């Protein structure tokens, strides 16, 4: 029987933008060896339409994602918790089986002002920053696993 994939939980306050961008990217590059989830300390109840749009631009579909509370994961074994905003980092509990915790804050693109195109530019910039960090995280994880 294959070993259970380690769970990586990405936390944000609203679970509408940054955490879904990160979840989609990490699933795309590491979904074969990591169980990637996201949640929020105060979930907004929706995934931001511009987050869905900018992810589709890079071939990742997050339209089926849902905004969920971190309490859904309190009784699950979570190996790694990654917070992507300061508020989530401050209220983050310890999860059963948690071995690692990282805090990588990103600007919240939901606060972008201006025209639709100007807002899209902010979402793209944040998406690209998240992509660099989470692709490097996946590569590092894969390297560590190949050494064991």
Automatic annotation (TrEMBL):
> Which InterPro entries does the record associate with it?
Ptyr_pPase (IPR023485), Ptyr_pPase_sf (IPR036196)
Q: Which Pfam families does this one have? A: LMWPc
The Phosphotyrosine protein phosphatase I domain extends over 6-140
Question: So which domain of life are we looking at?
Answer: Bacteria
Q: Does the keyword Signal apply?
A: no
Q: List keywords of the entry alphabetically.
A: Arsenical resistance
Alphabetically, which GO biological process terms does the record hold? response to arsenic-containing substance
Specify whether GTP-binding is a keyword of the entry: no
Extract the SMART domains matched here. LMWPc (SM00226)
Q: What is this protein called?
A: Protein tyrosine phosphatase
């Amino acid at each position: 029987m294959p070993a259970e994939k380690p769970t990586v939980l990405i936390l944000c306050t609203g679970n509408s933008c940054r955490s879904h961008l990160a979840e989609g990217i990490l699933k795309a590059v590491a979904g074969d060896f990591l169980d990637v989830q996201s949640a929020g300390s105060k979930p907004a109840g929706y995934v931001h339409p511009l987050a869905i749009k900018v992810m589709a631009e890079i071939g990742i579909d997050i339209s089926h994602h849902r905004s969920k509370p971190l309490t859904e994961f309190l009784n699950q074994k979570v190996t790694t918790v990654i917070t992507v905003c300061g508020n989530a980092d401050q209220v983050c509990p310890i999860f059963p089986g948690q071995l690692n915790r990282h805090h990588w804050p990103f600007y919240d693109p939901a606060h972008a002002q201006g025209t639709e195109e100007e807002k899209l530019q902010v979402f793209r910039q944040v998406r690209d920053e998240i992509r660099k960090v989470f692709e490097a995280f996946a590569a590092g994880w894969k390297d560590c696993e190949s050494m064991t």
